[in-house]
Amino acid sequence: MTPLDHYPAIDLGPLMKGLVIGGLGIFHVFLAQFAIGGGMLLCYLQWRHMRGVCRLARRFTDDYFKLLVLVSFVLGAVTGVAMWFTSIQISPRTIGTMVHEFHWVWATEWTFFCLEVVAGYLFYRYGPRLPDRARLQLLVLYSFASWMSLFWINGILSWQLTPGAWLETRNVWAGFFNPGFLPSLIFRTISAVAIAALAACTLVNAVPGFTREERQSLVAVCARPLAFMLAMPLVGAWYLGTMPADSRGWATGGSVPMTLFLTMAVGSSTLIGLYAVLAILRQRLFVNGATASLLLALAFVATAGGEFVREGVRKPFTIREYLYSNSIARDGVADLRRRGSTADDPYPLRDQADYPSEQLVLGAKVFRAQCSVCHTLDGMNAVAELAATWSIDQRRLNIAQLQRTKPFMPPFAGTPAEVEAIVQLIGWRHAGRPADWAVSDDPAVLAQIERWLDEAGTGPGDARLAVGARLP
Amino acid sequence: MNTPLPLGLPPATAFYLCLYLATLVVHLMFMHYVLAGSIYLAFGRLMGRARCQACRWQSILIDWLPFATGLAITAGVGPLLFVQILYGREFATANLLLSHRWMAILPVLIVCFYLLYLQKSAWIARQVWVWRPAVAAIACAGFIFIAWSWTENHLLMLDRAAWPGIYATGSLRYESAGVLPRLAVWCFLAFPSLAIELAWQGRLLGDRLDEPTVADTRLTGLSPVRRLAVTSLSGWAGTLLAAAAYWPAIPVAAREAIIGPPAGPWLTVAVLGLLIQIAAWSVALFSDRLSYIALIVMTAAWVAALLGIAVVRETIRLTAVDLATGGELHKTALGIGGLPVFLLFAVLNAAAIGWSIRLVRRQITSGNGSA
Fold first, then answer.
1. Pair B305, B277: CB distance under 8 Å
2. N-to-C CA span, chain A
3. How far is B199 from chain A (nearest CA, A)?
4. CA distance to partner chain B, nearest, from residue A390 (Å)
5. Domain span at A301
6. Could B346 and A9 be called an inter-chain contact, meaning their C-beta atoms sit closer than 8 Å?
């Protein structure tokens, strides 16, 4: 594997690239889980109708399925493709590696997409005219296919955080059935069912033609799957237990944003679960449209929090112990320390003429290659802001020993001259980008930077990530 | 490359190329329906309410375009996956260079998709007529924009020398003499596909295409069969003209490969498929009938032509990419496990799809369905 592949980096202005993919990812996951849980809920409703214990279920199933098609088949499908394209925009090497290693898994998932779309559309188009048994058969086929798509993608996503024995064997199935696979699959399945149940409670109140009593009886049935949320704390703890110790540490106090997002996810889920179990299922309270919408919004918040944590705790990697967040191979850092991270970069800077020296041009190229995936220069999570109060020697030390400065940062993967170039770039921007800026090439400074680089080594900062301590 | 594709390629590359082409042809079938169908509707809606309501093909398109779009997107996932295995670096680089402009196809696709549902909604049926041509035109413009973006992206993939320059300027456009004629080739090529697909749909929905039209055609101008024939024949004429305009923009090495050993036999297959379709549609045009046998023959010719054209398209790309580096990557990719699982589920899910269609057809045709 090459240490670093150069692609033309996109410019999102003041926006962090991570936020773009994160935002879209949360939206897509929520829609996808709605579709998966929706299929299961509709199977349950149709089954109850066939047993003669819910006479309204058949009609409501048709209404619900229309919503499913309009939301999931359009927004869900296109945002799925968008996830792929956005991943290429943000980190082509990460998605390229995932595609390379798991293309047959993805291809298998695709065959289930095809089944899901055909079975779903047949139900949407002909369901109202079909007898009950055929309706149930189609619904089972649809929901099985949609759940299987979760099954396959879940293996790839959980592999990114807990690649398990894949790191040693490079066996696709060792990577797919990784330590996080099962708890993540169960957790996502429960989330999907809960989202679908809350969407159903909202829809019951939105479609015309039901009396208050009919709405109440439908809500009572649709809300039943929310009882599965009682298992969430256990499964969540299991999932947390499979995480690498340092990642778990970020989520449980080591990193304030991660902990806050985890709290947000747990808090929202707890509120939904408590309301569902105590108010809806035990006291059989009626849930009106406003309450159901609020609960659904809370479910979105829980999804957002959970997805943010899942993405965030992988740091400093995008593929654990294999590829750093900035797409530099873990095993390639030593090579880049010798050759430099910009030596093979064929792309010029767009604003090259604005820089008063070649050293600043180099600094901007180093920033683009190593930092720009998570940082901006002056916008969100700006390097200039983060290093604003550091003295010049602090900047040199902190960047040279980046993995020690913050353990969720990757090691600096370049030469001492590249460290000095980015230090000067930060200083130049702080000074208001003057037209003249002296070149800093003192051999003593570069020698000191080199010592700092050597001291920190080429591995990640957290000792628990050291080679030999990889597997539990 | 001195042998017909994919024989001259390293085995792993040839394997992925075959998979890519097979899935691409399936995607093209649905994509052509959507692209040509939306153009057909946009122009058809301009003919006024009475003529539109009398047009059998417009009603079928309004009814089925949303589903066809879903199928086109789903069928597109396969080739999108394999293109990244075959040309990962080139594909990602073109995506990144076109950046926001390229990503704009996604919101546009969402809007177009919803507009297709809006076209068949009860809501629009209650509005004044002008809404319908307006919605059809916007959806059509959106799909053409997506086609244009794909064309630019594809051609930029092949122009490695232009990458640093385009990046430096920050331009989100790739201007090349080949963009418009190539876009025109693919847009026109969609019409012969649409004609065959509509003929099958009409037949499956119970239309008698094998008998001369007895209905009054004063309102619609041409009979349904003749309209399909004109659609296909004009589509082929446009394709040939656009291809002639595109030819000078193709690099010399690629042109030699197209008419030489690598793609020459495939070009012959495509031309034969084209000629058979032209002949069959010409007969249909004059006789005002399309027999079942003729439909089967022209369908086979259509699939052969699409496959031939897809290989010719790929030949141009293969002459522009670094096959030596790619070949190594393809070899390691093929060594990764999972192929048997894919094949197993491909067969099982194809069977499940067939079974579910049969289930619905049987229930609907036997009258078991409750109202």
1. yes
2. 25
3. 21
4. 32
5. 17-324
6. no
- CB within 8 Å: B338 and A78: no
A301 and A318 both lie in a single domain: yes
Contact yes or no for A131 and B368 at CB 8 A: yes
> What is the C-alpha to C-alpha distance for residues A7 and A227, in angstroms, rounded to an integer?
48
User: DSSP character for A382?
Assistant: B
Q: Are residues A340 and A243 part of one domain?
A: no
Q: Among candidates B120, B237, B81, B250, which has minimal Cα distance to B178?
A: B250
| CATH number of the domain encompassing residue A147 | 1.20.1630
**Are A400 and A281 part of one and the same domain?**
no
Same-domain status, A340 and A296: no
Please state the rounded mean pLDDT for residues B179-194. Answer: 97
Residues of B in contact with A112 (CB under 8 A): 345, 349
Cα distances (Å, whole numbers) of residue B347 to A105, A115, B340, B358: 15, 11, 11, 16
How far apart (Å, rounded) are the C-alpha atoms in residues B126 and A405? 65
Q: Do B369 and A129 make contact, defined as CB atoms within 8 angstroms? A: yes
Residues B232-284: tens digit of each pLDDT? 999 999 999 999 999 999 999 999 999 999 999 999 999 999 999 999 999 99
pLDDT at B371: 36
Q: Are residues A69 and A206 in the same domain?
A: yes
A7: nearest CB among B93, B359, B371: B93
CA distance B43 to B238: 16
Give me the pLDDT at residue A2, please. Answer: 85
pLDDT (tens digit per residue) in B17-37: 999 999 999 999 999 999 999
Is residue A6 in a domain? Answer: no
Please enumerate, as own/partner, the contacts of A156-159 that have beta carbons within 8 Å and a separation of 24 or more: A156/A98, A156/A102, A156/A105, A156/A106, A157/A184, A157/A310, A158/A184, A158/A185, A159/A102, A159/A319
Residues A335 and A444 occupy one common structural domain: yes
3-state secondary structure chain B: CCCCCCCCCCHHHHHHHHHHHHHHHHHHHHHHHHHHHHHHHHHHHHHCHHHHHHCHHHHHHHHHHHHHHHHHHHHHHHHHHHHHHHHHHHHHHHHHHHHHHHHCHHHHHHHHHHHHHHHCCHHHHCCCCCHHHHHHHHHHHHHHHHHHHHHHHHHHHHCHHHHHHHHHHCCCCCCCCCHHHHHHHHHHHHHHHHHHHHHHHHHHCCCCCCCCCCCCCCCCCCCHHHHHHHHHHHHHHHHHHHHHHHHHHCCHHHHHHHHCCCCHHHHHHHHHHHHHHHHHHHHHHHHCCCCHHHHHHHHHHHHHHHHHHHHHHHHHHHCCCCHHHHHHHHHHHHHCCCHHHHHHHHHHHHHHHHHHHHHHHHHHHHCCCCC
For residue B183, give the nearest of B93, B249, B94 by alpha carbon: B249
With an 8 Å Cβ cutoff, are B356 and A10 in contact?
A: no
Residue B85: which of A99, A131, A350 has the nearest Cβ? Answer: A99
Listed residue (A243, A105, A237) closest to A174, CA to CA = A105
Q: Give, in degrees to the nearest 5, the angle at Cα A219 between A215 and A220.
A: 120
Would the pLDDT of B314 be above 70?
A: yes
Cα–Cα dist B363/B77, whole Å: 31
Where does the pLDDT of residue A10 fall: very low under 50, low under 70, confident under 90, or very high at 90 and above? confident
Break chain B into its structural domains and give their ranges: 11-336, 338-371
pTM for the full predicted model: 0.93
Q: Is A13 left (phi over 0), alpha (psi -120 to 50) or beta?
A: left
Residues of A in contact with B81 (CB under 8 A): 99, 103, 106-107, 110
Q: Is residue A295 part of a domain?
A: yes
Name chain A contacts of B164, Cβ cutoff 8 Å. Answer: 346-348
A126 interfacial to chain B (CB closer than 8 Å): yes
CA–CA separation, A193 and A38 (whole Å): 7
